[in-house]
Amino acid sequence: MGITVSNAQFLLQAPNDSDQHNYRWFEASDTATVLGTNSYYEVTQPGIYFATYDGTLCGSNASGYFIVTNCSSPDNEVTLDISSNVDLSSGATVSWSPAVSGDQTSPMVVSSLTVQRYTATVTKAGNSFELPNFTVVCIDQAANLVDDIVSTDEDQPLVVDIFDNDSDLPTTGTLTTTDPLNGEVTINENGTPNDPSDDIVTYTPNADYNGPDTFDYTVCNQSGDCSTATVTIDVLPIIDAIDDAVATETETTIDIPVLDNDNDIPSIGTFSNINATNGVVIHSDNGTPNDPSDDTINYTPDNGFTGNDSFTYTICDGASNCSTATVTVVVSNAVDLDSDNDGILDSFEDLDMDGDGDPSTNPTDSDGDGFADYLDIDSDDDGIPDNVEAQTTEGYILPSLIDANSNGLDDAYEDGVLGLFPVDTDGDSMPDYLDDDSDNDNIPDAIEGHDYDHDGLADVIWIGSDKDNDGLDDAYEGDATIDIDVNDKYNDPYMDLPNTDGDNESDYRDIDDDNDSILTIDEDLNGDGDYSNDDNDANGIPDYLEPNTPEEEVEVFNVVTPNGDGVHDVLVIGGLENYPNNTLRIYNRWGVLVYTTKAYNTNGNVFDGTSEGRVTVEKDNKLPVGTYFYILDYEDITGKTVTLSGYIYINR
Length: 652
Hints:
GO terms for molecular function: calcium ion binding. By secondary structure, this protein is mostly beta strands. The protein has four domains: 10-139, Sandwich (Immunoglobulin-like); 148-236, Immunoglobulin-like; 334-548, no CATH class; 555-650, Immunoglobulin-like.
């Protein structure tokens, strides 16, 4: 079950002019316990309340009866029983204000959120007198929330019907959630920002995560009564077969550990493959025909074949959930699989336009610098070595400078799969090591990879000299111009490359370099293609490298005069229209919530000095002249919650 927290919704008020004092509040079922000694009493629970006090009459004086019920039927059915005070057989008559139906000595009325006072007048022998009045109202109930247990597959968002097993949901109030540790929760308000009862909650697990996760959700009604429940999610693993790329020499069999980079391989299921076009694939179940987790594959190229070959394999679990991957095999006469030692196989770096499988004939030269890509450690001339750009920033692996099997490939890049499979940050089918703008933000890598002083200009630029003939321009060579160093000075790209906002990605791969929620590509304000000259505050740092959060311009005008003259008839909050994700709460001097809303002034929801929360019984719902306290929370453009608070004054 969830947790419920109730707050005072009503303020019961006894007569309180200068003649009354020594108040004592009671609930009718326990008249021995004094609940309070002020002229008012805050109510959190249903009951029949009254107060006694000393006044101008002899002895104790008493208020009328305050009957507070729950709003749901049949709890809101109230019998006003005065039968012990009236004997109709003696000729007495009873009248009610307002009029009621049924038995006049015990009529039944229905309570609501609108306060209603009932007074009985007894008339006998021409004389009339009033009985103590009954003031009837119902109290908002906190929602009854029940914990939920759901499941979803890995990488699959799930709409969680959190309200399916809940009850007493408010139609005016709020819904909030906590953040799960291994996923994200979003709330769709369904077009009704102040009505949580129809909100749609979606949970999305983090990429590739499987296992348990939880989040809490809290529902509050308009009176501030809140309930909380917990959602437990079981994120189920799914088979994830990942493509492989390997290389072998002509007429040489190779064992391919295709499962090494796969995820969530079942121990009960099937493994199947489609044979290669130019070779033979042999699958072994390793003596466990129903357990694919230990299966092996080897490939033998056809006699005389060189070039690229491929085949697919499929893994299924016992529930027929399947995943298919492609294995690409490069068959070459070459003994040196990676001539420039950048971790990318020669067969990958050369487009093999002549179809002979030999990168040395008709070689690919992407940057046109005279060095074929398979011999060029910087194939796009951006000054960031291919060995760095081919790997993720966080997962970068240094060359080991070890080649135990003498195949020309550094052993650091021969762990299950031969060679690096180059990263393509922007998904444009051009890997970063060939892409002069890896993140597609309109600022070349040659600038973003070398702008350490954050002025929008590269600290070093290409000069057209390469004394050691490795394909990396001498301007970028660091301390040693002539050396054999495929990663040059970048032993840790996260630390060694510019990263303006200090997040987990270098600027040349970051689409929002300053993390101000404005995409870098959108910060060329003058539209001339030069992002370095857009500097709004003229401090030498271009806008795309400096957070440009708009100045907060939310202003609460602290006077409300609801007199119909068209000036400050409602609470005015300037600038809030720019921040629709907001919540406003207003309290009276006793700290009692009298008004709350979300997305203020978006759907006629304005504060005009009328209470929509806990009210003062014995009064209408117009709040009295006086000072009130407000708390305004709104989400700025960076997603940060900003809180404003202060006092407002109602003057009628």
